[in-house]
């Protein structure tokens, strides 16, 4: 139902709230009660002077009678209705619900957002339980210690005539295994508590680097100046980079960032990016760099200069994600493998062949993204060395660029939490109860 069609309903509700009779409002507005009755039942369009006059006598702005509930609330209610399979929600009357009962509508929208937030948390924790190597090793250590204690205790309990020397050995084993169990359990609880307080807790060098970049919104103004900071000094001063491997990875990233900034100065590149519609191929040709460098430079632009958020995912020849800069609606898994239908992985099969595709993640009301992907050989060891590949995928949401109307490629995050049950690339069943 269009917004304008509900103007009469809002007039009627506002009049009733004020305790005003229909005839009295019609007299004040200079129209007949029968005509006002038609307006209030949405059988006559209203606008111009009459709308302003009615709004004045009702004590509200004219826009309050025409615009109704906020667009964000309406969209959230629509999403909540779409998620419920087999439901009988009157979707065509959602705006009427939001207009007539704004408190209940806001409560329903808040509950739906909370449910979606908890679902994402469950997905993240399930993925973590499945793929986190530290968590797996810690659980194995706890189970091993419990098994050892149980075996030793069973021997002591079931054997009556144990040699005193052996009894002392068993007691010592019990003490050692109990201490090992306590230490392992404490370490596991501390790790889980840390992750619960911050889902983005770093447990690997790569994640430390990503936390370092995320804290700076992936933009490093210190390296943009004509006299840039020393990357080594930036690494040494960082609080996020706690391990030697993380500092080494970060130093390599900062050196490459500075090299990109020198070849594509910020102000000049930002202006060119707007002119070229954020097309990395055109930008690469314009600045004489390889497309992957243009990908990285676009991802490093502040959202205000890029016109909106820009995401980036990079992987090596094994498909392992080596860099993640997510955008809202396009999740990049922290642990485990991602969706094989991503253009990022399609590019791995066709080195040096650029790909441009519109993709649509799974969900009840999925957003669309414009992606660019390219795989290039690193040639770090020259032409005689092994072929080392690196692929990159630029992710542009609709709020950043205009998305073409071409059919979208359905994709997911990873098979374990993807709702597309009929996907031809599925590796394992989804843990989600509902699918499509």
Automatic annotation (TrEMBL):
Listed GO MF terms: DNA binding; DNA-binding transcription factor activity
Short name of any one Pfam family annotated for the protein: ScfRs
InterPro entries: Cro/C1-type_HTH, Lambda_DNA-bd_dom_sf, ScfR_C, TransReg_Diox_bact_type
Chain segments annotated as coiled-coil in the UniProt record: none
Transmembrane segments: none
GO cellular component terms, semicolon-separated: cytosol
PROSITE patterns (alphabetical): HTH_CROC1
Domain HTH cro/C1-type: 11-65
Entry keyword set: DNA-binding, Transcription, Transcription regulation
Name of the molecule in the record: Helix-turn-helix domain-containing protein
